[in-house]
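Posting this for the archive.
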Amino acid sequence: MGKLLKFSLPSALIWTGLATAANAFDLRPIGTYQTGIFDDSGARITTYDPLSQRLFVTNDSTQRIEILDIFDPTNPYPVAANPFIDLTTLDLGLDFEVGGINSIAFKDGILAAAVESKTLQDPGRVLFFDSNGTLLNSLTVGALPDMLTFTPDGRKILVANEGEPSGDYLNDPEGSVSIIELAADIASLTDANVKTADFQLFNNIAIDDRIRIFGPNATVAQDLEPESIAVSEDGTKAWVTLQENNAIAVLDLLTGEFTDLFALGFKDYSQPQNALDPSDRDGGINFRTLQNLFGIYQPDEIASYTFGGQTFLFTANEGDSREYLFEDEAGNEIESLVEETSVGDVLLDPDLFPNAAEIQQNSNFGRLEITNTMGDTDGDGDYDELYAFGGRSFSIWDELGNLIFDSGNEFERITAELFPDYFNSNNDANQSFDNRSDNKGPEPEGITLGRILEKTYAFIGLERIGGIIAYDVTDPYNPFFVDYFNNRNFAALFNEDVFGEDEEPSREQLDAVGDLGPEGLLFIAAADSPTGRPLLAVANEVSGTTTLYSVRVPEPSSAIALAGVGALGWLSRKRKRA
């Protein structure tokens, strides 16, 4: 049966462990650029040119890349001479129509952009610009290029091509990673400089059965969908998240071939440290455990860090489900693959879930979303195990895919303590307390790492309730929470009752509510920052805002003196806007 775990201030002090004191680490917003676009990807991904001090931000709503001057980060504004790159005006040939801008990266004077085709199953493009936004070149890559990154030496660009199927699943391109060998003259590059690393090797060999391969009639190569990429410090190896498949692929950059697949396994929600609030109908914040309930980590973004000569991988365990629909000739909607169901809608094994009726109540686990592709371990038609989407956490893995650390339920515990009236809110409306508990909770999506003085920090964006949470990960075996700031005004009247179900909020309403739906996080080191101090740039997809944060840490001697104060630091912070 499910076990209800109430929590109080003392228990929070215990699980938090040793955190630095309130004045040891300070993350705070200092400037925001507002597009005025609500819930239409007005700001998704950022990258930065330290020479021109320009911040580039994707605006998928207008199919533009905004170019912001952040010489004064308290007042980011569009560059006067050329405020944006409009992809709809570019001559990319008759055979390509821009579908969306999924990722951008900047290095050594070159801005690269991953652009999907209007028909998602067709090959995408990587576009190259200078810092003024002048188009230099365009190369063809795989279907649905979702993310790109430069290798540390700047000699290659790696592109994660997700390769999603069509709604009827009749066109299912293979997932892949495009490896672009760069040259001093970007304009001289041709498609011959693009190598494709695919997964066809794994079609004919046994793979870990915990790797989710479940697309209708799909081969392994078709079913694997690359999402995000992290590269080793020496540039010889890359790790690629396969979100829907709950796995990480290993890419040898010397040979340009995938060498391994790591199954990430599952999170045990019967353990107290992983207890979750699984219901939006229980009238409060109630952390529960349940035997035979597991979380599918399904990380979105990934980052890497070298410690003690080894590479460690950091993942934001967002979770995702597949849903593919199409219309037949009569206009009827047909499901080709819909994996999402709920605990209350499935038949539970009577021996493993003896009080199924209680478990399946809406106020208990009944509304928790799970996959219908797993759980019937003995093939008798009922569910012996339940698998929910995402881990509601961030994790640290070694380069062989072994789990080193998981934050358990700390994200939900921290947000519950600091924002008890807005716990697990949604990102498109205020007054939405507990709305996302039955889904994926706070939904950590973006993650980035930053080195400040002698410490390394992980910054994770919580897509639903919002805000940025920071951990000291200097020692990957002993990470700890240091700060959380949510630049959202929950007191602002911001819901359908104010701006109407079919209406858009006004600019004034958007200004009042602040940041909604953090997506892309970018750490700007002190050496590259216009202020000489580290910054964090956050693009917020729902509010269409880009916010710059200052990141302050104590001098090393002060940090030593302050360490070990405990969780009182985060409990005493004024991290609310209400």
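The helical segments are 9-16, 220-223, 356-359, 410-418, 496-499, 507-513, 556-562, 568-572. Residues 126 and 139 are 5 Å apart (CA to CA).
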